[in-house]
Amino acid sequence: TSLVAVAGARLEVLRIDAGSAGAAPIVMLHEGLGSVAMWRDFPHRVAQATGRDVVAYSRAGYGRSSPAALPFGVRYMHDEALVVLPRLLDALAIDEPVLFGHSDGGSIALIHAAASGRPVAGLALMAPHVLVEDVSIASIAAARVAWRTTDLRARLARYHDDVDAAFAGWNDIWLHPDFRTWNIEDCARGLTCPVLAMQGRDDEYGTLDQIRSIARAGPDVELVEFARTEQIFTTPKEK
Predict the structure, then answer these.
(1) Angle between helices 134-149 and 163-174 (to 10 degrees)
(2) Angle at 102 between CA 119 and CA 87, to 5 degrees
(3) What is the pLDDT of residue 21?
(4) Whole-prediction pTM value?
(5) Could you tell me the sign of the dihedral formed by the alpha carbons of 143, 148, 149, 151, in that order?
(6) Please, which residues have CB within 8 angstroms of residue 56's CB and are 6 or more apart in sequence?
(7) 93, 103, 127 from 223: Cα distances, Å
C-alpha cells in the first residue's frame, strides 16, 4: 500500500494492476469499521476474476490513513462521496470507475454515482444502506456493548492505527438521534449506470428492503439475495 494526499489527509491506498488498460478499474469502498487490510485477499480475488485493475483505500480515520475529524456529522457519507472520493479519483487519474462498496461504502458509492456529476461505469453494492432501520440501530447498539465487554476492540486494533476513533466515528453517529431520519432513497432515482445490489437475508445490519428500495427507484438494477452472509464480509475473528 501507499499513502496518497487527498483533501488534507493521507489516505492508505492499495493498487492492483491486472494489465487491463482498456477496462474501467474497480474502486472498493469499505464498510463502517473497515480498511484496506480488512478486505484481506478479496481485492486480489476481484482483480483475478474480472481481469480489471483494482483500487482499495482506507477512509480518513481508518486503517493506516490520517485521523478523521470527529464527531462525524449526519452527512458524513455525502462528504466522502462528493468531496473526498472525487479528489482521490483525480489523484489516481481514474476517470470512470466501477465502484464496489460494502455497507457504508455502498452508500457512499451510490451517492457518488447519483449526485457527483462524474461518470461511473457501474455499481456493485454489498449490503448498502439507503435508510435507517430498527434492526440496524439495535445491532449497532449491541456492537457498542461488545466493544466494552468483549475482545472486539483488540480484534479491530490490528487493522486501525487509532481503533478507538475508528469505532467512535461510526458508532456514535449511527446511534445519534439526528441520524434516524437519514435517508438516500431519492439518490437511487438519479442513477444512470448499471447497478448490482446484494444483501444477505440474515444480515444483522439491514433487511432486504434496502436493496429492494434501490431496485424500485433505479432504472437498471439487478438484485442478489444471499441465504446467509459470508464471513468475508463480517468483522474478522481470531482463528
Answers:
(1) 150
(2) 40
(3) 72
(4) 0.93
(5) positive
(6) 13, 14, 27, 28, 30, 36, 39, 43
(7) 31, 15, 11
